[in-house]
Amino acid sequence: MANDAILDANNVTIRFGGLTAVCDFNFEIRPHELVGLIGPNGAGKTTIFNMITGVYKPTEGTIHVGGMDTREMRPYQITSLGIARTFQNIRLFKELSVLDNVKIGGHIHYKYSGTSAVLHTNRFRDAEAGAEEQALRLLDIFGLAHRAHDAARNLPYGDQRRLEIARALAARPKLLLLDEPAAGLNDSETRALMATIHDIRDRFDIAILLIEHNMELVMGICERIVVLNFGKTIAEGTPEAIRANNDVIEAYLGEPAETVDL
Amino acid sequence: MPKRWWLRDFIFLIAYIGLLYGVWIALEYAAVYWPSMRYYNRILVLMGINITLAVSLNIINGHAGQFSLGHAGFMAVGAYGSAYLTVYYFGPYVEKLAEGSVQRVVWQNVLLLVAIVTGAIVSAIAGYIVGLPSLRLRGDYLAIVTLGFGEIIRVLILNIDKVGAARGLTGIPAWSNFFWVFFFCGLTILISHRLVHSSVGRAFLAVREDQIAAEAMGVDTTRYKVKAFIIGSCLAGVAGALFAHYTPAYLNPTMFTFIKSFEVVAMVVLGGLGSISGSIVAAIILTFLPEGLRAIKDYMPGGRDPRMVVYSIMLIVLMLTRPQGLFGRKELWQFLPKRKDRIPTEPRDAGENKLDRDAAPPVT
After folding, report:
1. CA angle, corner A32, sides to A242 and A91, nearest 5?
2. Average pLDDT, chain A
3. Does a structural domain hold residue A226?
4. How far apart are CA B348 and CA A131, in angstroms?
5. Other C-beta atoms lying within 10 Å of the C-beta of residue B29
6. Phi and psi at residue B304, to the nearest 5°
7. ipTM score here?
8. Cα distance from A174 to chain B (closest Cα, Å)?
9. A178–B contact, CB cutoff 8 A
10. Which of A106, A139, B147, B171: CA 20 to 30 A from B249?
């Protein structure tokens, strides 16, 4: 794959028994892009995330991350290629502190042996100082620094969502996958989140692929949108093109209608 | 950044050794004047071994969240592994040296250390072998496998004549003492404490909390699960080796049944899974409790011993009132009033770091 795409999915298909969850999915994302992945419930969006991150193996097709074939890789190896994600149903390390959550996010960048940890060598001290510094900086950005020592489960829901993004960013990804980041947020929170997503893309210079049902958010910030229905890509293009696309409207509303306004 | 990172630790180590040595000598002298102190010294040493066991199991069960019921097995491997060396090789060698000579004292302790380290290594290998199924199994299934492992070890020992089989292993030199037990007990606590406050320990905790999320954060869950088993079993092997060489310095396979494993699990669970200080306190309580309950026997008709009944009832009551264990997941000092200087109460002034969220109303 001699191109500069961060992620390159070719003819990816996955079947669970007789069910073809995703069929012949082709997708590419380049640095600094902000792409939305939308579709009705059960369209296969999260399945695609799970294939990209290695939780599921595609039945057919290949996924390349930074030019590397990820077929034989475990999720943690794919993470070190520069992909980090959040989860649809928040998966924070609930009992751990907010700070530790973010520190674990930076795990791949601050590693040392157990012996170093027990002896408190300089290597350990440097790495820990670095991890702490990075974690606090990220928490600062997300306005969570004052709760650094609280258990993650004690955060309000919106803060938990943002903590998950902070934790993913600690892995310093090239591509950030956000699975329904606005789920359960109210309007003002969603608007704040839109600004945040846009801002972190520029600040960290990363590409973002997000799954979202909130059309205002998707249409508002994504530069490109991919629409799935029953595991198949039915449309791809700019928000304007998607808005006007009859297949999309049909997928969402069942029959041609004036506007997609959910 | 201090260049000589080891200096502070080294000073603490010397101070710790000095302190232990002082206490040990004092206890020995006390035993000379008050013979009943011998009994308390003995309980104290057994307590030290139990603390080591509980803290090491806490790494596997509490930190990494892999429920192991085979700790007696690891302990047995360490005990028999080290005792084999001292009975057949080290003991006879030291016997040849003149009684009371400096040479003898030095060799005795050096060889004891070698035996302990060997026991620990053999145990760590056993831990690696048992850790492997934990990659595929979770929860109850892993518990059953580790339980089975413990029994396998016991039955193996029962069939090896060289280590005494069912007769038990006799003739072990009684080289272990208060000093060595608490030296390694302190070491175990230190290792456990420092690990959990490092990237390794955080990886353990991440595996315990959510394996899928941990993998997504780049944590090689397989590797860390096995690592937890290796470290935990290695330290259990140390406890086993110390136990083997402590008076009466006799080993028997019946000492390492699953009941012993459950005893250690009870300590960890009672103290609160994941809490190091909880494990320590629970180990202290559960070592002294059965001893303290001996007195009840005197009031029972016919001299029946209701100790285990009372012990069980107390455990049940404790688990009913505090199902999360004495300390939950917290450490002892976390119950103290928080130090204000460490926790910023106000959001830090983010300055230029702060995201431009003015476009949106404040998030509450």
Report:
1. 85
2. 90
3. yes
4. 18
5. 11
6. -70, 155
7. 0.90
8. 14
9. no
10. B147
Decide if B295 touches A, using CB distance below 8 A.
no
Q: Quick: pLDDT tens for A61-96.
A: 999 998 899 989 999 999 999 999 999 999 999 999
Residues ≥6 apart with Cβ < 8 Å to B74: B123, B126, B127, B130, B232, B233, B236, B237, B240
- Confirm whether B10 is domain-assigned: no
In a domain, A234, yes or no: yes
Q: Identify the H or E element spanning A13.
A: strand A7-16
CA distance B294 to B158: 31
Q: Which domain holds residue A186?
A: 7-82+173-253
Q: Which residues of chain B have pLDDT under 50?
A: 341, 343-353, 356-364
Domain membership flag for residue B114: yes
Domain containing residue B89: 36-256
| Single-letter residue type at A76 | Y
The tens digit of pLDDT for each residue in B50-60 reads 999 999 999 99
Kindly determine whether residue B217 and residue A84, on different chains, have CB atoms separated by under 8 Å. Answer: yes
A219: domain CATH number is 3.40.50.300
What does the DSSP 8-state code read for residue B60? Answer: I
Could you tell me if residue A232 is inside a domain? Answer: yes
Question: Could you tell me which of A131, A122, A130 has the C-alpha nearest to residue A100?
Answer: A131
Q: Which of B71, B55, B49, B90 is nearest to B243 (CA)?
A: B49
Residue B345, domain member (yes or no): no
Q: Where are the alpha helices (DSSP H) in chain B?
A: 6-33, 37-58, 71-85, 91-96, 102-131, 139-158, 178-196, 199-209, 211-216, 221-244, 258-271, 276-292, 307-321
**In Å, what is the CA distance from A50 to each residue of A21, A22, B118?**
12, 11, 45
Taking residue A146's Cβ as centre, other Cβ atoms within 10 Å add up to: 16
Q: CA-CA distance, B276 to B58, in Å (whole number)? A: 7
Query: How many domains does chain A divide into?
Result: 1
DSSP string, B244-285: HTSTT--B-GGGGSHHHHHHHHHHHHHH-TT-HHHHHHHHHH
Q: Is B95 on the interface with A (CB under 8 A)?
A: no
A121 lies in a domain?
Answer: no
Residue A216 tokens, joined: 């205002």
Residue B87, in any domain of the structure: yes
Domains: count for chain B: 1
CA angle centred on A53, ends A156 and A83, rounded to 5°: 75
Nearest to A93 among B213, B345, B355 (CB): B213
